[in-house]
Amino acid sequence: MNDRFIQKESIFKVGRVISIEGRTVKVIVNKNKNTSHLLYEGELLKNISVGGYIKIIKGFIRIIGKVDGEFTNEDKIIANKEYKNEKDTINRILTVSLVGYIEDGEFERGIKELPLIDNECYILEKKEFESIHNFIKDGDISIEIGKLSLENNTPVRVGINSLFASHIGIFGNTGSGKSYTLAKLYRQLFLKFSDKGTFLKNSHFFFLDFNGEYVPDDAIIDKKYKNIYRLSTHNQNGLDKYPISESQIQDTTFWSIILDATEKTQRPFLKRAIDNTYFKSIIDQPELFKKYIVDLFKQTWIDGKGILYGELKNFLKEIQEDCCANADVVISQLNSHVRVFTKNYSPDDIYTISSNNTWIYYKNNPQSFDSIIETIDITPTKDTIIKYKLAIILKYFDEVASGYQNQEHLAPLIKRLEKRIDDLRKVIEVSSIENTSEKKEETLKNITIVSLRDVNLEMRKMLPLLICKELYDSHKKNGKLSYLNIIIDEAHNILSRDSDRESESWKDYRLETFEEIIKEGRKFGVFLTIASQRPSDISGTIISQLHNFFLHRLINNKDIEAIEKSISYLDKVSFEYLPILPTGTCIMTGVMVNMPVVININQIEESRFEPDNKTLDLVKLWGMDKSTTT
């Protein structure tokens, strides 16, 4: 037994401490341990090297350090001897960062004690190595996601609580494998739990997919487990429509976001319009609605408000499809008999002139002004979105015609209204979750994927905010009774801190909403997973609040600097790996792991479950034979 202990001691001992500077220690390596591997009981052991671990023995305490670098110097004592081996004249020195200690067989991160000069250093035994790379806490369930890249492909398993009850960041240049990593993480989770009733009942996973990578029926998991919405603003009727609650439509914030309303003037106006029960009531009563429009026409014509009168005619044309089928006829008759005042007219032709000499009404009109506008035909609309659109426009005419509001302040909002409403109706529908068996079937699926690939730029900015805000607000009411994970791939599209396409107030509101989710969501069981190729574009507040990271290859200096500033878990060696990581390899770090590790993400077992993001094969596309072309 003693012989075996002595043999083990001689093989595992690699050097001794020669310098201590804070948590940085220098270790001189024994000259007989300068090989890449050591042989012990018929098994090859990887020798100490940069990126590896070393154990420093101080009495009964085992201190663990990670090798950050190494250098050599000349051993002057050996060099001065007459008979010497050239190899023996070189000292190999390791620079080691202290990362933790082993106590009662368990690895603990942090510094409990510093070593002393001449403390002996050893390579780790198998159990000690496994203890450092054991990321599973008591009571947790594990999933395997990859293998250690630098340590003989040792499997890497993570705890479900540690990973998914946290905010996750996945970063890497295009083609580095970040979307594949995202898909692998959630596939492993869904494979383990997707058929369990409590999992379906108590959790919701919401994927925001900007590039349509996860909309293939089998991407990540079989279609039967998920709802897929392929939204489009290019198709007249839209492909799919995402259901939002009626309560959200009634929220002034919803319309402020859609219409990009200014804070001081337009948002208060929208609140008055949305909260005004009178206008919402007359829209459902054709006679009252018609009377109100007729009165508006009379008021604007008599008062000589030419611009507002012209807008009223445009308003009729806009609502022709919605509730005024004969708008074209009415407008045509008005255009034929009501003219802008000019000096070139015959007094005999004039029937009347408006009070401020702005409009002329001609005698040759076979109908009176009243009789023309009385022909307006109004039918009620059942579309909730259109009802709110009408309520906003009617409130606009009411306030401007009465002189309560300056037309110049509200006109830009009304101009945006028509286009935004048109796009909005293509991608969402107002839904109250009761009725239909289809709705009941959808509620049994707890995975939702929303593709924004075919949505225009304006809606790509607004929809994620609207949807995520509703998900978060409704989930807050349940507290921690259920779990919500919002997964955003290509997150720089919505979490960017620099954007020239939107006002400062709108950008601030967008970022504040997501920053609230990431700062406060954990208390209510709401978590974010974000993947992006440009971490430098994303709000620093959001990155700093992430708990766990999967860092793929990053080349851009700004992106690397953003990671360095925001992630305190990354050591020097791991940080320097970032620009040279191969595709499919990443650095895993965060609160779930004892220290940063470089891992190769496991392949998804069947290609049909992979995200749709492979690089185009030009040789195959162009029909060339790789074996015959030169």
Question: What does this molecule look like?
Answer:
The chain is of the alpha/beta class. The chain folds into three domains: 2-132; 157-235 and 444-621, Rossmann fold, CATH 3.40.50; 252-427, no CATH class. The chain has 24 helices and 25 strands. Strands 11-10-25-24-23-12-22-21-13-20-14 form an eleven-stranded mixed β-sheet. The chain has a six-stranded antiparallel beta barrel with strand order 1-2-7-6-5-9. Strand 10 and strand 11 (155-159) form a beta hairpin. Helix 9 (266-275) packs across helix 15 (384-401), helix 11 (286-302) runs antiparallel to helix 12 and helix 11 (286-302) runs parallel beside helix 15. The longest helix has 21 residues, at 407-427. It is elongated and about 115 Å long. The two termini are 65 Å apart.
Write the layout of secondary structure elements.
Elements: H1 2-12, E1 13-21, E2 24-29, E3 37-40, E4 43-46, E5 53-58, E6 61-74, H2 76-79, E7 90-103, E8 106-109, E9 120-122, H3 126-132, E10 142-148, E11 155-159, H4 160-164, E12 168-171, H5 178-193, H6 197-202, E13 203-209, E14 226-232, E15 242-245, H7 246-249, H8 252-258, H9 266-275, H10 277-283, H11 286-302, H12 306-318, H13 327-337, E16 338-340, E17 350-353, E18 359-362, H14 369-373, H15 384-401, H16 407-427, E19 428-431, H17 437-443, E20 447-454, H18 457-476, E21 483-489, H19 492-495, H20 504-520, E22 526-532, H21 540-544, E23 548-551, H22 557-566, H23 572-577, E24 585-590, E25 597-601, H24 618-621
Parallel strand pairs: 12-22, 12-23, 13-20, 13-21, 14-20, 15-19, 21-22
Antiparallel strand pairs: 1-2, 1-9, 2-7, 3-4, 5-6, 5-9, 6-7, 7-8, 10-11, 10-25, 16-18, 17-18, 23-24, 24-25
Helix pairs in contact: 8-9, 9-15, 11-12, 11-15, 15-16, 18-20
